[in-house]
Amino acid sequence: MAMILLFFLLAVSAVSADQDAFIGVNLGMDLSDMPNPTQVVALLKAQNIRHLRLYDADRAMLLALANTGIQVIVSVPNDQLLGIGQSNATAANWVARNVIAHVPATNITGIAIGSDVLTTLPNAAPILVSALKFIHSALLASNLDRQIKVSTPHSSSIILDSFPPSQAFFNRSWDPVMVPLLQFLQSTGSYLMLNVYPYYDYMQSNGVIPLDYALFRPLPPTKEAVDANTLLHYTNVFDAVVDAAYFAMLDLNFTNIRVVVTESGWPSKGDASEPDATLDNANTYNSNLIRHVLNNTGTPKHPGVPVSTYIYELYNEDLRPGSVSEKNWGLFNSNGMPVYTLHLTGAGAVLANDTTNQTFCVARDGADRRLLQAALDWACGPGKVDCSPLLQGQSCYQPDNVIAHSTYAFNAYYQKMAKSPGTCDFKGVAIITTTNPSHGTCLFPGSSGSNGTLVNSTSLAPSSNSSDSAGGCLPKHLYGTIPYTSSTIFCVLLMTLVFL
Ligand SMILES: *[C@@H]1O[C@H](CO)[C@@H](O)[C@H](O)[C@H]1NC(C)=O
Ligand SMILES: *[C@@H]1O[C@H](CO)[C@@H](O)[C@H](O)[C@H]1NC(C)=O
Ligand SMILES: *[C@@H]1O[C@H](CO)[C@@H](O)[C@H](O)[C@H]1NC(C)=O
Ligand SMILES: *[C@@H]1O[C@H](CO)[C@@H](O)[C@H](O)[C@H]1NC(C)=O
Ligand SMILES: *[C@@H]1O[C@H](CO)[C@@H](O)[C@H](O)[C@H]1NC(C)=O
Ligand SMILES: *[C@@H]1O[C@H](CO)[C@@H](O)[C@H](O)[C@H]1NC(C)=O
Ligand SMILES: *[C@@H]1O[C@H](CO)[C@@H](O)[C@H](O)[C@H]1NC(C)=O
Ligand SMILES: *[C@@H]1O[C@H](CO)[C@@H](O)[C@H](O)[C@H]1NC(C)=O
Ligand SMILES: *[C@@H]1O[C@H](CO)[C@@H](O)[C@H](O)[C@H]1NC(C)=O
Ligand SMILES: *[C@@H]1O[C@H](CO)[C@@H](O)[C@H](O)[C@H]1NC(C)=O
C-alpha cells in the first residue's frame, strides 16, 4: 500500500529529488589501440565508475560488463535508426539481440535512440518518436520497461534564446517531434537526455561568456548572471543550460520530466585556434562538474533535484576526425593512465584514484598591478597570512615582484581557509590552478615535499573566521565593469552582468 502510494506520488509530482545524482562516462571507441573490453571494465572498476554509456550495443563490451553491477546505457546508432523507426519487428529484433540477450547479468538501465538526431539527421526526425515507441513496446512485452528507460540525446542547440533561461524554448520547427516525444517521456517515466557543452557555448560567445563562468569558477557576486524574470542567480553555464531545458519543456507545458546530461566535458588539448582547450581548463571543468553533480546541488530552478551526468569521455580518441581538440576530450589515455589528475577533494569515491588535494591559488595572468598590491597588502594584513617567507633573505623573497609575492600570499590564504569556495578570488585577480608554484627552496603551502609530505598549511597564521575572500578594503571604483561587446543573444547575459 505504502509503495503504491509512493509510486503514485512520484508519478504525479513535479521534477523530484528522490535519488542521488551520479557521474558516468561515455565510451567512444575511435582509438588506434582501443583497450579490449576486459581492460575497459578493469579501468571502470579501478576508478569506481558505476555508470557507462555506449554509443552502440557492442556484444563483447556488454558481456564484459556482466556481473559487474555497472549500469549501462546502450545506444541505437543513427545508421540503424531508420530501420527501427519504420518497423516494429526490426525494433523488437534489436531489443532481443542487444538487450534481452544480456539482462539481467549486464545491468542495462537505458536505451539512447540515436544521437543529436534533430541537428545531425533531420531526415530521420519524423520517425524518431516511432523508434522510441517501438523499442519501448518490445521492452514492455518482456516486462523490462520499468527498469530500462528509453530516450534520445539532444544537442542543447535545439534550445533557443537560452539566456535568460526563463525565456528558453525548443526550436519551434521541432514542435511536431518534441511534443509527442515529451508526452512519451512523461508517460513512460523516462527523462530528457541532453548534451551540455559549456566549452562550445564559451567558444561561440566571442568573449561574452567569461571563462570562469564556463568552468564553474567562483565569480564575484557582482559578476553573477541573473535571470531578470525569475531573479535566479546563475554561477555557471552548465546550470543555465539545464534550466533552459526545464523552461523549454515548461513552454510546452511539461513540468515533470527530469534532465539527464548524456554528455559534458572539456578538451585538454587543441590547436592554435582553440587556446582554451588546455589540461588545466579540462581538469578544472571536469573536477568542478563532478563535485557539482555529486553534491546534488541541482540547478537554481530546481535546487536539490539531481542532474546525473555522463562525462564525455573515458578515453582520448586519436582516430576522431576534425580539429586537435576533437581527439582530446578523454579522461584517460588508451593505456589507462589519466590524462590529468582530477582534483576531487570531498567528491566521494568516483574516479577515486585520481583524487588529490593539490590545488593552488595564484595571481591571474595580466592582473592589474595595483589590484595585486592591494590584495597582497590585505592578505598579509587583515587576512592574517604569515608573509615572513617574502621578507628579504627568506625563501620566497625572489623573484622580488608583486606577481610572485601576491601569488605566495594568495595561496597561503587559500590553503589557510581550507580552499573553501570564494577564498581564491581577491576581487578577481586570483585564480585556482593545479600547477604547483613552488620553486627552489620556496615551498608553497599545500604542496607535497619531495618525499610526499604535505607542507603544513594550517600553522601559517592565526586562524581567522573571515569567510570572505578579501576584505572590503579594495577601492571599489577599480573593479566591477566588464568591457564585453557582442551582438549575440548572450548580450542579455552581458546586461545582467554589468547592470546588476
Ligand atoms: C541494476 O541497477 C538498478 C538501478 O540502480 C538496481 O536497482 C538493480 O538492482 C541493478 N540490478 C543488478 C542486477 O545489478
Ligand atoms: C509492436 O509490437 C509489440 C510487440 O512487440 C506490440 O505489443 C505492439 O502493439 C506493436 N505496435 C505496433 C504499433 O504495431
Ligand atoms: C530551427 O530548426 C530549423 C530546422 O532544422 C533550422 O532550419 C533553423 O535554422 C533553426 N532555427 C534556429 C534559430 O536555430
Ligand atoms: C499550455 O497551457 C496553457 C494554459 O493551460 C495554454 O494556454 C497553452 O496553450 C498551453 N501550451 C501548449 C503548447 O500546449
Ligand atoms: C553543495 O550543496 C549545498 C546545498 O545543498 C550548497 O550550499 C553548496 O554550495 C554546494 N557545494 C558545491 C561545491 O556545489
Ligand atoms: C588505481 O588504483 C589501483 C589500486 O590502488 C591501481 O592498481 C591502479 O593501477 C590505479 N589505476 C590508475 C589508472 O591509476
Ligand atoms: C584531502 O583533504 C581531505 C579534506 O580536507 C582530507 O580528509 C584527506 O585526507 C586529504 N587527502 C590527502 C591525500 O591529503
Ligand atoms: C619529509 O620531509 C619533511 C620536510 O622536508 C621532513 O620533516 C620529514 O621528516 C621527511 N619524511 C621522511 C619520511 O623522510
Ligand atoms: C604543523 O602544524 C601543527 C599545528 O599547528 C604544528 O603543531 C606542527 O608543529 C606543524 N608542523 C610543521 C612541520 O611545521
Ligand atoms: C570571529 O572572530 C570574532 C573576533 O575575533 C569573535 O568575536 C567571534 O566569536 C568569531 N566567530 C566565530 C564564529 O568564530
Automatic annotation (TrEMBL):
PROSITE patterns hit by this protein: GLYCOSYL_HYDROL_F17
GO cellular component, one term: plasma membrane
Single GO BP term: defense response
Enzyme Commission no: 3.2.1.39
SMART domains named in the record: X8
Domain X8: 359-444
Catalysed reaction equations from the record: Hydrolysis of (1->3)-beta-D-glucosidic linkages in (1->3)-beta-D-glucans
Keyword terms of this UniProt record: Cell membrane, Disulfide bond, Glycoprotein, Glycosidase, GPI-anchor, Hydrolase, Lipoprotein, Membrane, Plant defense, Signal
Signal peptide: 1-17
Subcellular location: Cell membrane
Main location: membrane
Mode of membrane association: Lipid-anchor; GPI-anchor
An example Gene Ontology molecular-function term: glucan endo-1,3-beta-D-glucosidase activity
Segments traversing the membrane: none
Family indicated by similarity: Belongs to the glycosyl hydrolase 17 family.
Official protein name in the record: glucan endo-1,3-beta-D-glucosidase
Lineage of producing organism: Eukaryota, Viridiplantae, Streptophyta, Embryophyta, Tracheophyta
